Amino acid sequence: MLSKEDGELLIKVAREAIKTYLENKKIMEPPRIPSHLKEKMGVFVTLNKNGDLRGCIGFPEPIKPLIEGVIEAAVAAATSDPRFPPVTLNELNEIQIEVSVLTKPEPIKVENPKEYPKMIKVGRDGLIIEKGFYKGLLLPQVAIEWGFDEEEFLCNTCLKAGLPPDCWYDQETKVYKFQAQIFQEKHLE
After folding, report:
1. Same-domain pairing of 28 and 96
2. CB of 14 within 8 A of CB of 92?
3. pLDDT in tens, 18-64
4. pTM given for the model
5. Position 95 in a domain
């Protein structure tokens, strides 16, 4: 578990990474930070503007040191989310940053796919659905924000993967869950 201070530092670094990239087109070097923030962890950076999603990109698997993942995900969320035009320097002060630090995704093991909803806790678990080349992820907070129950959460994760909403009933579909520690920027400067 990371502390509140760790979360505030990660948010500050994410904002600085976006600002540095928008001003100089350079990925900033990681600052000097406590060593536990250099451990490999999954991370997503979400950008919101006026309460609406403005970008969200990250690394579901613990493949990068956390601080590097935050920097790369922040820049990518601001400049490379295909759902949105790139963030401009002028709008940066209107954007609220959220950093979600993820646990390692674990496969949910069931005898019958109908058991998946019982294996998920809305508000605690995030989901990854994978079938063939298709893969989709929804963070735990998405189910809360949209008022999903477990089945709706599974269906919407299938849709995010570009698959039919009931693909989780298919024996060939893999379902993973993970948890996230979520840090939100409290106020905008």
Report:
1. yes
2. no
3. 999 999 999 999 999 999 999 999 999 999 999 899 999 999 999 99
4. 0.91
5. yes
